[in-house]
Specification:
There is one protein chain. With about 550 residues, this protein is of the alpha/beta class. It is built from 19 helices and 27 strands. The protein folds into 3 domains: about 5-190, Alpha-D-Glucose-1,6-Bisphosphate, Chain A, domain 3, CATH 3.40.120.10; about 195-420, Alpha-D-Glucose-1,6-Bisphosphate, Chain A, domain 3 (3-Layer(aba) Sandwich); about 420-560, TATA-Binding Protein (2-Layer Sandwich). The strands form 6 sheets. Strands 2-6-5-3-4-9-8 form a 7-stranded mixed beta sheet, with helices on both faces. A 7-stranded antiparallel beta sheet has the order 20-21-24-25-26-19-27. Strands 11-10-12-13-14 form a 5-stranded mixed beta sheet, sandwiched between helices. A hairpin with a 6-residue loop joins strand 12 (about 285) and strand 13 (about 295-300). The structure holds 1,6-di-O-phosphono-alpha-D-glucopyranose. 1,6-di-O-phosphono-alpha-D-glucopyranose binds near residues 292, 376 and 380.
Length: about 550
């Protein structure tokens, strides 16, 4: 019989969830008194008491350092707050897309995901707690605002301190709680099973098996970067679809991701890029810590920009069996994502939505039956099969296209540009900039570009001149519920359709990260194969000059270029 006790606590002022959950250094969660307890209680407090009774909560995460402690705390606090059942991935491990899938499958009231995504882990790395609602999607701003409000005034939390679960054994564990008529249940489930079942319904596994292990199979290399994706890649790609075991690397989830950033981009997935350059593999992909992001590479390391990736999937969408059944309801991309998907939407007469950065903004459109496929420049691709971006889904979508078109990644991409034109895109990240300097730079820039005199100005770099057509701080009005999200990024739009965008990241844990995005469309077939960095250099120069970024932050180069 476990006791429920009330513990007095003091609020913290800094528990505002960012783009996707609360992310802080591990030390903040571990060493600040009751920091994690406060946030977990504030989160659970947003669940209505009637939904807790008879309700289930899914718990999973990328297995990073401090996750096991956090799972035990969630169990103890959820039980004390009257949640009837927790369904937890074995050893606390479950990818973000798999959590979304399971929430939907068992009709849970929501889920808690323990991840800081692509941020580094280990005792000196980051930890994160994210709440997803009953649709399976990240909590919308209305809910995260409530969590933040509660966290600012919290005075006590409820906990069953003696309750301990065995996270390693699959099966049901029940616990009697003092003064509770019904026992509290914890179910430990296989992390992969229900997600793999879902994928079997979406894709043609027989065709994929032929592609990966038939007589004229292609060679793939998938890098799980020691994040949560190891077991998924091993079971689905290797064991079920027959790719040789050595097709998958870094598949043992590690608490510190082997000391690396589990971030699938050209900088942090450099090993994969190197291996692909050798020319042995036809297709390569990497995933982030929690398995929702993906990077796709072709033979010899041919890089598929994420904005192009979603556009290619959009242009070939009917080769995926799921969409043959559901039809194509709409496309969406986040505002900074290049306009490549827009061209496909226009040509195929599909409605296109432009949302702020953050997967949570796609959820309403999907729930309303208006959106089938969406993507973000930040290596996120997905569809309405769940309410999170889905790294392995994106890989299977690409493999389906390869199987259907019988072309290489590079040929598919080049054909696409020939047909639709090419959006040259790059993103510069300036990580861990002094917060005050970053905020001031953005404020000054906002003042400058919102001034009426800014419109019509001509900016020249080299032999290129661009005229400002429009400038604003992006604001989104949700077409489903009418909610307004302001201050979503500074945009400078030029008369030729090129765009310069600045925004502050909402996923960092220390200092500020400034992101600069450049998007420029080219339809001249003679020019579409140029190097994006060369092609976009004039616009980068103009962006740095207008923003005075280097002078105001002291940074003369970005940390990461995509
Ligand atoms: C999260 C969100 C994404 C967003 C990304 C980047 O990804 O889920 O929708 O695009 O952050 O956000 P920011 O530019 O604010 O850093 P993840 O994979 O970190 O959960």
């Amino acid at each position: 019989m476990s006791k429920i006790i009330t513990v007095k606590t003091k609020p913290y002022a800094d528990q505002k969830p960012g783009t996707s959950g609360l992310r802080k250094r591990v030390a903040v969660f571990q060493k600040s008194q009751k920091y994690a307890e406060n946030f977990i209680q504030s989160t659970i407090s947003t669940i209505e008491p009637q939904d807790r009774q008879g309700g289930s909560l899914v718990v999973g995460g990328d297995g990073r350092f401090f996750a096991k402690d956090a799972v035990q705390l969630i169990v103890q606090i959820a039980a004390a707050n009257g949640i009837d059942r927790l369904v937890i991935g074995q050893n606390g491990i479950m990818s973000t897309p798999a959590v979304s899938c399971l929430i939907r499958e068992i009709k849970a009231v929501g889920g808690i995901i323990l991840t800081a995504s692509h941020n580094p882990g280990g005792p000196n790395g980051d930890f994160g707690i994210k709440y997803n609602i009953s649709s399976g999607g990240p909590a919308p701003e209305g809910v995260t605002d409530r969590i933040f409000q509660i966290s600012k005034t919290i005075e006590e939390y409820f906990i069953c301190p003696d309750l301990k679960v065995d996270l390693s054994t699959i099966g049901k564990q029940t616990f009697d709680l003092e003064n509770r008529p019904k026992p509290f249940t914890v179910e430990i489930v296989d992390s992969v099973d229900s997600y793999a079942n879902m994928l079997r319904d979406i894709f043609d596994f027989a065709a994929l098996k032929e592609l990966l292990s038939g007589p004229s199979h292609i060679k793939v290399r998938l890098d799980a970067m020691h994040g949560v994706m190891g077991p998924y890649v091993t079971k689905i790609i290797c064991e079920e679809l027959g790719a040789p075991a050595n097709s998958a690397v870094n598949c043992i989830p590690k608490e510190d991701f082997g000391g690396h950033h589990p971030d699938p981009n050209l900088t942090y997935a450099a090993d994969l890029v190197e291996a692909m350059r050798g020319g042995e593999y036809d297709f390569g992909a990497a995933f982030d810590g929690d398995g929702d992001r993906n990077m796709v590479l072709g033979k010899h390391g041919f890089f598929v920009n994420p904005s192009d990736s979603v556009a290619v999937i959009g242009a070939n969408i009917t080769s995926i069996p799921y969409f043959q059944k559901t039809g194509v309801k709409g496309f969406a991309r986040s505002m900074p994502t290049s306009g490549a998907l827009d061209s496909v939407a226009k040509a195929t007469k599909v409605q296109l939505y432009e949302t702020p950065t953050g997967w949570k903004f796609f959820g309403n459109l999907m729930d309303a039956g208006r959106l089938s496929l969406c993507g973000e420049e930040s290596f996120g691709t997905g569809s309405d099969h769940i309410r999170e971006k889905d790294g392995l889904w994106a890989v299977l979508a690409w493999l389906t296209i390869l199987a259907t078109r019988k072309q290489s990644v590079e040929e598919i991409m080049k054909d696409h540009w020939q047909k639709f034109g090419r959006n040259f895109f790059t993103r510069y990240d300036y990580e861990e900039v002094d917060s005050d300097a970053a905020n001031k730079m953005i404020k000054d820039l906002e003042m400058l570009i919102l001034d009426a005199a800014f419109i019509g100005q001509k900016h020249t770099a080299g032999d290129k001149t661009y005229e400002v057509e429009k400038a604003d701080n992006f604001e989104y009005s949700d077409p489903v519920d009418g909610s307004i999200s302001k201050n979503q990024g500074l945009r400078i739009l030029f008369t030729d359709g090129s765009r310069i965008i600045f925004r502050l990241s909402g996923t960092g844990s220390a200092g500020a990260t400034i992101r600069l995005y450049i998007d420029s469309y080219e339809k001249d077939p003679q020019k579409i194969y140029q190097d994006p960095q060369v092609m976009l250099a004039p616009l980068v120069g103009i962006a740095l000059k207008i923003s005075q970024l280097q002078e105001k932050t002291g940074r003369d180069a970005p940390t990461v270029i995509t």
